[in-house]
Structure formats: structure tokens, C-alpha cells
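Practice record 12: protein with protoporphyrin IX containing FE.
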Amino acid sequence: MVGLYRALDERFGFHEGLMKVLKKPVPKFINLTHCFGGITFLLFGVQVISGILLAIYYKATPDKAYESVQYIVNEVPMGWLIRQVHAWGANLMIIAVMLHTFRILWHRAYRPPREFNWVVGSFLLFATMAFGFSGYLLPWDQLSYWATTVGTEMASSVPVIGPHLLTFMRGGATVDAPTLTRFYALHVLVLPVTTMALLGLHFLMVRRLGVAKPL
Ligand code: HEM
């Protein structure tokens, strides 16, 4: 393993740059509350891996979605475990991102020069919620169908654009096949790509600005 690392470094010369990134001393005032951002990131990694495994068997059509989830749970080896990890991971990630946001508020880490990172973080918070909302429809059972019907209905109360927003989200007047396709595309493509880009920006700013000192 060490030999392979050396051989690759001789050819690509990444060791020095990598050490510069990794060897950053952590300030003395760091405490447990500073771990919430990292825990959120760890859970995001768990979601990506378990989500890829679920996507191998999941079928995003109204006639196959429910059946494919039952197949994952009952037939696929460890399928039940992967599904539970993904479902629990989703809830834990929402709790972790909220704790992280409270930590930022408590330490007033939203103040200059970190205000832009606060904005990026707000988008990340929105993306985390959107992950949960879009993923909830995918099992295509009674609970998920009616939760999405009620959830999307709320969008119609937005002034002026409400009815258009509702049709856009559902892909029609009611929750149906186009809604499932849209939510699936959002869940496995749009949100993961956007979240990864936002996280890159988020971490870059944390490294450049350092962690805010507690008050
Ligand atoms: C997927 C969601 C998110 C992940 C994975 C994430 C991850 C992280 C990590 C690892 C750090 C550095 C360690 C720490 O301070 O905890 C950090 C810092 C920060 N985060 Fe997040 N974050 C997320 C969402 C948010 C949200 C929702 C906000 C606020 C609206 C936010 C605002 C900030 C700010 C302002 C900092 C700098 C803190 C400082 O300098 O003390 N982040 N984030």
C-alpha cells in the first residue's frame, strides 16, 4: 500500500499539497458542538452510499416502485438493513444539520466575514429538507402518497405563483407518475450534485476563514 502511494506520488506529486491541506492545527477552543457540521457531513456520506445501493434495485414507476421496495426489504440480501440505514440516516442528518445551525447561531458565526458561508449553509439546509421531502414519496405507499399530496398542496398557498408552483412540483394536477419521476430525478441527481458543489464551497470558506471563536 505504501509502495503504491509512493509510486503514484512520484508520478503525480500530490503528497506535499495533500499534507498542506490535512496538517492544519485545530484551535484550542474547539469543543463537542463543533462536531455537528462534521457529523452532518459523515451522515451525508452514509446517505450517498446507502442510496446508491438502494438505486440498484429501486424502480421509479408507479406500478413498480412499491413492489421494488418490498423486493429490496424481503429478497435482496441485507436489503432491509440498507433501507433502514438510509431511513434512519435521513432523520439523523436533519437533526445533525439543525444542531449545527444552532451552534452557528450560538457562537454568532454568521457574522462577517462568515456571512457568505451562512448563506451557502442556508442553501444546504434547504437541500437537506428537500432530500427528505423528495425521498419520502419514493416508496409510493399510502403514507408517502398522501404526505406528498398535502406537502405539495402547501406550495399552492404561495401568493401569485402558488398554483403554477403546485403544477410544476406535481407535473400535473395530482400526484401521479410525473411527480414520481420528478422527485426521483431531484433526489438522486439534482440535489446530490448541488449539495456536493455547495459543500465544496462551504468547506473552502471554513478553511480560508478559520472557525469562529466562541463568544
Ligand atoms: C449538509 C449540511 C451541512 C454540512 C455537512 C456542514 C458542514 C460544516 C462543517 C464540517 C463545518 C466546520 C466545523 C463546524 O463548524 O461544525 C461547518 C462550518 C460552518 N457552517 Fe456548515 N454544514 C452544513 C449546513 C450548514 C447550515 C444549514 C448553516 C447555517 C445556515 C451552516 C453554516 C456554517 C457556518 C457559518 C460555518 C462556519 C462556522 C465557524 O467558522 O465557526 N452550515 N459546516
